[in-house]
Known about the structure:
Elements: E1 2-6, H1 13-24, E2 30-33, H2 44-54, H3 62-69, H4 77-85, H5 88-96, E3 100-104, E4 107-110, E5 123-126, E6 129-132, H6 135-148, E7 151-153, E8 161-164, E9 170-173, E10 181-184, E11 190-193, E12 199-205, E13 212-218, H7 222-231, H8 237-244
Parallel strand pairs: 1-2, 4-7, 7-9
Antiparallel strand pairs: 1-12, 3-4, 5-6, 8-9, 10-11, 12-13
Helix pairs in contact: 3-4, 3-5, 7-8
Protein name: Metallophosphoesterase family protein
GO molecular function, one term: phosphatase activity
Domain Calcineurin-like phosphoesterase: 1-183
Amino acid sequence: MRIAVITDIHGNAAALEAALADIATRGADSTICLGDIASGAGWPAETVERLQAAGIPCVRGNHDRWISEHEGEKLGMQDRIAHEGLTAAQRDWLMALPATLEPAPGVLAVHGTPSSDVQNLIEEVVAERLRPAPMAVLRERLGDRGMAARVVLCGHSHRAGMVQVPGGPLVVNPGSLGLPGFRISREPAHRQEAGTPHARYAMLDIGGREPAVEMIALAYDWDRAARRAEEHGANAAWPHVIRTGLLPESA
């Protein structure tokens, strides 16, 4: 069985369309989305509509939850754009998404960790950058349910990576499909940059004795996505990171 894994679209319907077209050529049996679907200076309503039309199972991310829990004036730029661009029914749909899913026997899909949508699973913040978390920390974050799985799929950090936990699951983060970098000022302050503007997703094959994973970095029309962010009046960092995979200070 081959499962396409997408996450952290952040309203980038241009990246989503390119990824779904690419997935269709790779013989995936199913696709799953790990959350943070609509929040961003892109196409929030169109992104939700596309996932719904395709019948793709989705986990609820922290931004999906925040859009539904708060009013526009209490939200940051990316959540405010999504809140204003979505219908009440679409916000309700995001809020009703499950915190976890099991797309196949032995496979657990989460946004952050099995118990939190705001905690990274395989990374921790060191000197304002994301670095691999110690194995003891990873085991604690997985908990009993995660440690019992064969594969755990996670997102949230936007940082592509895999970790095989000794005596536990293969943990896979495909990286962000629609937003290759960000800066967070609240504690713990940190930033993440993919280094390229490609849309990232993963193909998981669980048909063999051991699971196999292909990490994919897909070219798409990122200039179109950046122009859309500029049309929304997003701060300069948002279109810049979409075009380059780097924050302005790094470029």
